[in-house]
Amino acid sequence: MKTLRTLIAGLLCFIAASLSSAGVGGGSLYLPIINLVAGLDLKTASTFSAFMVTGGSLSNVLYTLVFFADPKSSIDYDIALLSEPSMLLGVSAGVLGNVMLPEWLITALFALFLGVSTYKTFEAGFRCWGAESEEVRRSGIIGAQDGEEEEEEPLLLSGEGFQGSIQWRKMVVLVVVWLTFFVLHVVIADKGDKKILQIRPCGVLYWLITLFQVPLAIGFTACILYQNRKMQHQTPDQEKDNQGIIVHSRMKELPAVIFPLAALISGILGGLFGIGGGMLINPVLLQIGIPPQVTASTTSFMVLFSSSMSMVQYLILGMKAVEEAAIFAAVCFFASIVGLVLIQRAVEKFGRASLIVFSVSIVMALSVVSITCFGAIDVWREYKNGEDMGFKLPC
């Protein structure tokens, strides 16, 4: 019976990972499946979810960097650099809020916020669909007037015009940011008798290290902003990189701080609701006006950093059932590739990147239903067990 439940859970996770391959992580779908279908407790389900989100995000990033060298679908490292420090800081603040706020309030806030985000994402999808339809109509008229079609440029570029899928300098900076926040999280981690250092929870040193994340995130973001502006002044004619001219022209129109602010809010809500920030930062980037392909690739890249931090921390703190979690992660890895291939073929066939937006919208709508029901069950369980359902102290 247990084996059958595990197989059903694996199949459902495969479907969820395929649907979530547009850069939203899928943690809000994995958690109820592992808890309710596979029958694992909530704590274990959370660790499994971190592994599965990491597996799915890793396949997305590898596919984008290695197997699909399309400039229109490449990762925007500038957005990732500006967003990652603030997102990691927001996750820490959100986790603290998760401890203090009652479960029923978190569930209600999540349903409200994600419901609004789902509506806005569907709206962005229809807006993108309309713009694509207009572009197709306009191209048809121009083509009929000219009597000939322009030859399309190949997707796989070479030479100086295409800088390559991996920008190693920016990748190194992202890894340094990740490692810095990771060390701080590990130092103050408190998982019962599993401690890296003997730091008393909520002691003076604990709060100093925790609050140090604020100037750390501000410092990283300020340095990245300064470096970006310095590079823009030095090479004003070379801004057309592998992200395409649309992304960079759009970034110029917006205040640079919009990206770290959006990432901070997404990180707070992600930590508060116990899901990856991809489902929250993805709609924000779409609303800002970043093209759907770039949004999907960049979000997956950012989710890989945030989810891998949770996964490695669970490993260091001695999580159980690592082999089972790795199997589920492998399922999500291959399922995400399947989903990516299907989405990319659909985009190429119909010429509509809005399909990616609708894919994100469907996952978000399913997440509203799953997490709301899952949260309601958890709240009812707390009520039946007579647990405290009010606000709590952080320690």
Offer a quick outline of the entry:
The chain is mainly alpha-helical and 395 residues long.
> Major sheet, described briefly?
none
pLDDT averaged residue by residue: 76
Q: Helix- and strand-based class?
A: mainly alpha
Number of helices: 14
The H/E string reads HHHHHHHHHHHHHH
Outline the low-pLDDT stretches. Answer: 148-164, 237-246
Q: How many β-strands, per DSSP?
A: 0
Family: Belongs to the 4-toluene sulfonate uptake permease (TSUP) (TC 2.A.102) family.
Organism: Asparagus officinalis (Garden asparagus)
InterPro entries: TM_pro_TauE-like
GO biological process, one term: protein ubiquitination
Task: Explain the overall architecture.
Helix content is 75%, strand content 0%. By secondary structure, the protein is an all-alpha fold. The chain has a domain at 75-136 and 156-318 and 351-384. Helix 5 runs antiparallel to helix 14 (354-384). It is globular, with a radius of gyration of 22 Å. The protein starts with a helix and ends in an 11-residue tail after the last helix. Residues 148-164 and 237-246 have low confidence and may be disordered.
List the helices and strands and how they pair.
Blueprint lengths: L1 H18 L7 H11 L4 H26 L9 H24 L2 H44 L21 H21 L15 H8 L1 H22 L10 H9 L4 H16 L4 H11 L3 H25 L5 H29 L3 H31 L11
